[in-house]
């Protein structure tokens, strides 16, 4: 009887260990990690404060409204978009999900949104549709064991609409890109006092990304640019009477910030 109990106990332990190993293997081998970041294209405001309540990912590719799962937000609440310019960003949250298709992200906003113009704060009227969730198409397939970084590039300048009676409305304009499928262009505009704007241009006239060079250092970073093409980088000075200049044949590689060095304005 003792031997039988011992054999049964041993069998249970072996079965438990086997199940634990199988579960661990399935978890490690079948999961991908999603990280969602927030950055901003500069706008002519003192602050653009956005109330972020939830970020969700749709884990199916069908057209239904099911399959949504919330990421684990680091800090729900108000974010000043102007804190995240010229390559700066903040991580909103992360989520481990089964490998496979993901089709959309959904940004859910609260009502505590505002814009500061010339030192004066104005509430941002937010349409109810935006509060219920702004859907962003991503349509990609996640591979197991891989980290995916999705960056929401919130265009503050185009997202703020001033009405005829002096109020402001929030109509979010957001593009989304991933670190694994895009590259970037960085450099330095000299002098920084030129307060230059920098543009990445494809097909002669298509502006893909824009940013203002840092007014103290002259550094800039253009993000979310597809690899495998030669781009133009146009520099437009807004102070000091400097001439505009354009660089050509800039090649972008996935996962790499192509450094085009110092651009000296005349």
Give the H and E element order.
Answer: HEEEEEEEEEHEEHEEEEEEEEEE
Largest sheet features? 9 strands, mixed
- C-alpha termini separation: 95 Å
Mean model confidence by pLDDT? 83
Structural summary, described in words:
The chain is mostly beta strands. It has helices spanning 2-30, 128-132, 156-159; strands at 31-41, 47-58, 68-70, 72-73, 77-80, 90-98, 100-109, 114-117, 120-125, 134-142, 147-155, 160-162, 168-170, 174-178, 182-190, 197-202, 206-212, 219-226, 230-236, 245-251, 257-264. Strands 2, 3, 5, 7, 8, 9, 10, 12 and 13 form a nine-stranded mixed β-sheet that branches. Strand 8 (114-117) and strand 9 form a beta hairpin.
Properties at a glance:
single chain; 266 residues; mainly beta; nine-stranded mixed β-sheet; five-stranded mixed β-sheet; 3 helices; 14% helix; globular; disordered N terminus
In short:
The protein has 266 residues and is mainly beta.
Layout of strands and helices, then pairs:
Blueprint: H1 2-30, E1 31-41, E2 47-58, E3 68-70, E4 72-73, E5 77-80, E6 90-98, E7 100-109, E8 114-117, E9 120-125, H2 128-132, E10 134-142, E11 147-155, H3 156-159, E12 160-162, E13 168-170, E14 174-178, E15 182-190, E16 197-202, E17 206-212, E18 219-226, E19 230-236, E20 245-251, E21 257-264
Parallel strand pairs: 1-11, 9-13, 15-21
Antiparallel strand pairs: 1-6, 2-3, 2-5, 2-7, 2-8, 4-6, 7-10, 8-9, 11-14, 12-13, 15-18, 16-17, 16-19, 19-20
């Amino acid at each position: 009887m003792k031997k039988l109990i011992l054999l049964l106990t041993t069998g249970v332990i072996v079965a438990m260990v086997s199940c634990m190993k199988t579960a661990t293997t399935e978890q490690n081998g079948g999961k991908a990690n999603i990280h969602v970041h927030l950055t901003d294209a500069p706008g002519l405001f003192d602050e653009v404060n956005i109330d972020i309540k939830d970020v969700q990912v749709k884990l199916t590719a069908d057209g239904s409204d099911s399959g949504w799962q919330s990421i684990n937000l680091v800090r729900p609440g108000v974010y000043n978009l102007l804190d995240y310019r010229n390559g700066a960003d903040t991580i909103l949250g992360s989520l481990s999900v089964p490998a496979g298709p993901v089709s959309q992200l959904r940004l859910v906003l609260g009502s505590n949104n505002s814009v500061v113009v010339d030192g004066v704060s104005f509430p941002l009227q937010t349409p109810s549709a935006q509060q219920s969730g702004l859907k962003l198409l991503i349509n990609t397939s996640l591979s197991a064991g891989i980290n995916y970084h999705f960056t929401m590039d919130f265009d503050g300048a185009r997202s703020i609409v001033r009405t005829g009676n002096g109020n402001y409305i929030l109509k979010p304009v957001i593009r989304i890109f991933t670190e694994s499928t895009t590259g970037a262009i960085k450099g330095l505009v000299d002098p920084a006092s030129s307060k230059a704007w920098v543009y990445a241009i494809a097909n002669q006239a298509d502006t893909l990304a824009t940013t203002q060079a840092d007014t103290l250092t002259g550094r800039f970073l253009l993000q979310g640019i597809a690899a495998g093409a030669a781009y133009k980088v146009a520099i437009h000075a807004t102070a000091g009477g400097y001439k505009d200049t354009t660089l050509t044949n800039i090649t972008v590689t996935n996962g790499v910030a192509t450094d085009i060095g110092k651009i000296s304005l005349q």
